[in-house]
């Protein structure tokens, strides 16, 4: 069976392909001729993930899934949340996003935060959702060179390193995205076993 991942990020596609049962062939947007930016106008991560999945499904009629991720900081009322990628502007500049986050947290003692990923799957005309959350805290100064986005300022609970200091092999076992993907993979495994 073929499953469309609503992304053009080949690294993400390869990473997830390696985790799926052999019977499942994962393809990306470019494989089905979709190159345009897909709208994300929802007011929740779930709404954005579903919007992207619906967009791809309406153009391809293929079973597909999409994800959306946000950093939710308790002292900022859950911000940046769905605006995480564009927190400091439309340029989606990670360095600027981190700088603005740290500026907004200056003098604030409560640094509790969490990363959240929601996956929307369209499968046999049904909609399914899978969520992954990792709790942690925001530190004052970026540390580490791995990862992307807010990884240099986020330390997950139970660890002493930021996501940007961790080897990818460790991050991929504890991250919000990994937790959501594992739920999706378990669902697909159960489905393919039934066939």
Topology:
Layout: E1 2-5, H1 10-17, E2 25-27, H2 45-60, E3 64-73, E4 80-81, H3 94-104, E5 112-123, E6 126-138, E7 154-156, H4 168-174, H5 176-194
Helix pairs in contact: 4-5
Provide tags for this entry.
Maf protein; globular; alpha/beta; 7 strands; 195 residues; 31% helix; 7-stranded mixed sheet
Quick description:
With 195 residues, the chain is α/β, with parallel strands linked by helices. The protein is built from five helices and seven strands, in the order βαβαββαβββαα.
Number of domains: 1
Strand-pairing-aware structural class: alpha/beta
CATH fold-level name: Maf protein
Q: Helical segment tally?
A: 5
Helix percentage: 25-40%
Number of DSSP E strands: 7
Q: Which ranges are low-confidence, i.e. pLDDT below 50, for 5 or more consecutive residues?
A: none
**Estimated radius of gyration:** 17 Å
Largest β sheet strand count, sense and barrel closure: 7 strands, mixed
* Strand content range: 15-25%
Secondary-structure element pattern, one letter each: EHEHEEHEEEHH
């Amino acid at each position: 069976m073929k499953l469309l991942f609503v992304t053009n990020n080949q690294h993400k596609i390869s990473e997830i392909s390696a985790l799926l049962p052999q019977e499942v062939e994962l393809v990306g947007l470019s494989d089905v001729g979709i190159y345009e930016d897909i709208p994300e106008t929802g007011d929740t991560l779930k709404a954005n993930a579903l919007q992207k999945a619906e967009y791809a499904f309406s153009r391809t009629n293929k079973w597909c899934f999409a994800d959306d991720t946000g950093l939710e900081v308790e002292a900022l009322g859950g911000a940046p949340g769905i605006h995480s990628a564009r927190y400091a502007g439309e340029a989606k500049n990670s360095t600027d996003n981190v700088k603005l986050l740290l500026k907004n947290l200056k003098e604030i003692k409560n640094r509790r935060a969490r990363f959240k990923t929601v996956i929307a799957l369209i499968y046999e005309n049904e909609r399914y959702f899978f969520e992954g959350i990792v709790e942690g805290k925001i530190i004052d100064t970026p540390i580490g060179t791995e990862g992307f986005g807010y990884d240099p300022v986020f330390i997950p609970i139970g660890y002493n390193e930021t996501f940007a200091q961790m080897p990818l092999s460790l991050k991929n076992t504890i991250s919000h995205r990994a937790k959501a993907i594992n739920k999706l993979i378990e669902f697909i495994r159960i489905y393919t076993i039934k066939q």
